[in-house]
Design brief:
globular; mainly alpha
């Protein structure tokens, strides 16, 4: 699969779009960590830190699908770059004004969260045109995307902690968000982003949410986000008693590293069968991985357990991308992926908000207990919606500008057979 990833990255525009999207999403990916460290450095409580991170998450949850729908309607450059600038200005406001005024602090994180650009959904909308509409390559790109995210989640916490150590928590906020604007700029100036147009869509006020299968998936990923959000706060509480910010940085990096390793192994083979069924297995394994965190051993062992807890995260995300693509109504691809980000973000916000009081009342183990409960709830949602998720059944055409798609856009017929440029069915790669 490493050779396959290399082939994908050699495709014109692919490496630039992937790198630009990852850098552009860095502020959003590290927002909870950066906000919590900023608040704690100023003497704020865990509850305030969790509440501000939750406010960012809720604002992001509202903004992502709205901005995603705007991208589907008006194109990427007219939405992504202005949103990135507005989001960075909001976080700069927090860094410079501090938390002395609660209203100003909440206003800053709400502005920043709401305008965080939907780069993640935008990239997945671009893959078909960049890769010639070949489904097996698009699915491989989804797996590469999930693995690359874990690189970001591994490096991101380290960048934040290094900036805090060399400068200050406020400096970390400024640096991370400046990088985010540069990443968004790189994406929107690329030819595929400038020429991409969404396929025709049915006018409906619910947009992508008129798909019952998509709604079921979103419900499960709300709880996956809740689990990860609670680990953010519980991890800080653990590090406060076991070595401070450095331990926390290594724990969060280990979580991303474990997910990275899991994603690489998962992407090393082709998977048969329905991705919806495979997703249930992956979420069950993800939930089991959170249980050892309740032991809260010493820093070295805890870092190892945190890595173990992340192993099934990237495979779960990669599989979910395909499920979204199978259930999203035509013409709503950016919005559908943005809804996934939204529900994940709302879950993370709820997780951070709930874990704070649990840590203060029951200690660090209670905070990790929130993650365990949320993982179990995600599995319950998938188990109770099996019939809904078992019937994607949509027909769509993979669209993209011919200028950005030298190999020609393919057409997906029925549930997934792909007609490539030569007209023959391409090999179906499910879950990879």
């Amino acid at each position: 699969m490493a050779a396959g990833y290399a082939e994908l990255l050699r495709t014109r525009h692919a490496a630039r779009l992937l790198a630009g999207t990852l850098v552009g999403r860095l502020p959003n990916a590290t927002a909870a960590i950066a906000i919590v460290l900023f608040v704690r450095a100023g003497g704020g409580s865990y509850s305030l830190a969790g509440a501000l991170a939750a406010a960012y998450g809720f604002a992001n949850a509202v903004g992502q699908p709205l901005l995603g729908r705007a991208v589907d309607l008006y194109g990427q450059p007219r939405v992504q770059l202005p949103a990135a600038v507005a989001s960075a200005l909001g976080m700069a406001w927090l860094a410079l004004a501090g938390t002395g005024s609660a209203a100003a602090a909440y206003g800053a994180v709400i502005v920043s969260g709401f305008f965080s650009p939907p780069l993640e959904g935008g990239l997945r909308a671009l893959w078909p045109s960049v890769l010639g509409g070949r489904e097996e390559r698009v699915h491989a790109a989804y797996a590469l995307d999930a693995v690359a995210q874990e690189v970001m989640y591994t490096v991101g916490p380290l960048i934040v902690t290094v900036c805090v150590a060399l400068w200050s928590p406020a400096g970390a906020l400024l640096v991370i968000n400046a990088l985010g604007v540069l990443g968004a700029l790189s994406v929107v100036l690329s030819e595929p982003s400038r020429t991409w147009r969404s396929e025709p869509r049915e006018a409906h006020w619910l947009g992508a949410l008129r798909s019952r299968g998509l709604v079921a998936l979103l419900g499960a990923f709300f709880f996956v986000g809740c689990a990860l959000g609670s680990i953010t706060v519980a991890g800080i509480a653990y590090s406060d008693g076991h070595g401070g910010q450095a331990v926390y940085g290594w724990m969060m990096a280990a979580l991303g590293l474990g997910a990275l390793a899991g994603g690489v192994v998962y992407g090393a083979r082709q998977w048969g069968g329905a991705p919806e069924r495979r997703l249930r297995v992956l979420v069950a394994l993800l939930a089991l991985g959170y249980l050892p965190l309740l032991l809260t051993p010493g820093p070295v062992a805890m870092t190892a357990l945190t890595a173990l807890a992340g192993v099934f995260l990237a495979p779960t995300i990669a599989c979910a991308f395909i499920v979204v693509d199978r259930h999203a109504p035509a013409g709503t691809v950016t919005e559908a992926f943005s809804w996934l980000v939204t529900f994940f973000g709302v879950g993370a916000a709820v997780g951070t908000a709930v874990a704070g009081p649990f840590v203060e009342l029951g200690g660090t183990a209670a905070g990790f207990g929130v993650a365990c409960a949320a993982g179990a709830a995600a599995l319950v949602v998938l188990m109770t919606t099996q019939r809904i998720l078992a019937a994607p059944g949509r027909t769509r055409t993979v669209t993209g500008s011919s200028a950005a798609s030298p190999e020609g856009a393919g057409e997906i017929v029925g549930e997934g057979a792909v007609r490539g440029p030569a007209g023959g069915p391409a090999e179906r790669l499910v879950g990879n």
